[in-house]
């Protein structure tokens, strides 16, 4: 899913700032260095305009240029990202690590971004599994696709037109999805009670083989309850 497609500009927004921020978004999505031409094409601006964007971002250390004149995300992003939900992440980390090791699967804490999307706030990989799912924090997905979003919806009042899976998740306390976000990767997630500052959260695991889904469901529910308790 492209985050660019999800932002609708209106007259109260800055088109120039939007395009400049898109440079950071496309580099993050790409996961590797890009040339100025590739950046210009991805953002949809002239090469000269893209050059102004990257020079400004370089000055703030949000981008860096290598010897081949390709651009990478810069170290200036680290102090900007570090304070985001610091208390929540500090409290949740040991609980997610315990969950990941207990079920030998990648665990994640996901937050509702807006009415249509959820974002992975934390991703913790198991230390005792030879094979596991890997993805980066920050991933944005549709709220009605994948167990993380379905779990968050299940913690909210029922609404017309919602998926049957949301109703099922309300009944059993956790949501299950099959190959909805990434092919061959399944998910089991539970809503976190007492959303922090109104933010809706879910805890889940991503696996290649669901195996004992009841065991996974019980594990994510227990972790969700603990996170709700320590952060509520």
Automatic annotation (TrEMBL):
Molecular function GO terms recorded: DNA binding; DNA-binding transcription factor activity
Gene Ontology terms: biological process: negative regulation of DNA-templated transcription
Keyword presence, Transcription regulation: yes
Superkingdom of origin: Bacteria
Keywords: DNA-binding, Transcription, Transcription regulation
InterPro entries according to UniProt: GAF-like_dom_sf, HTH_MetabolicPath_Reg, Tscrpt_reg_IclR_C, Tscrpt_reg_IclR_N, WH-like_DNA-bd_sf, WH_DNA-bd_sf
Pfam family membership, one: HTH_IclR
PANTHER family, per the entry: HELIX-TURN-HELIX TRANSCRIPTIONAL REGULATOR, ICLR FAMILY, HTH-TYPE TRANSCRIPTIONAL REPRESSOR ALLR
Designated name of the protein: Transcriptional regulator, IclR family
Organism: Nocardioides simplex
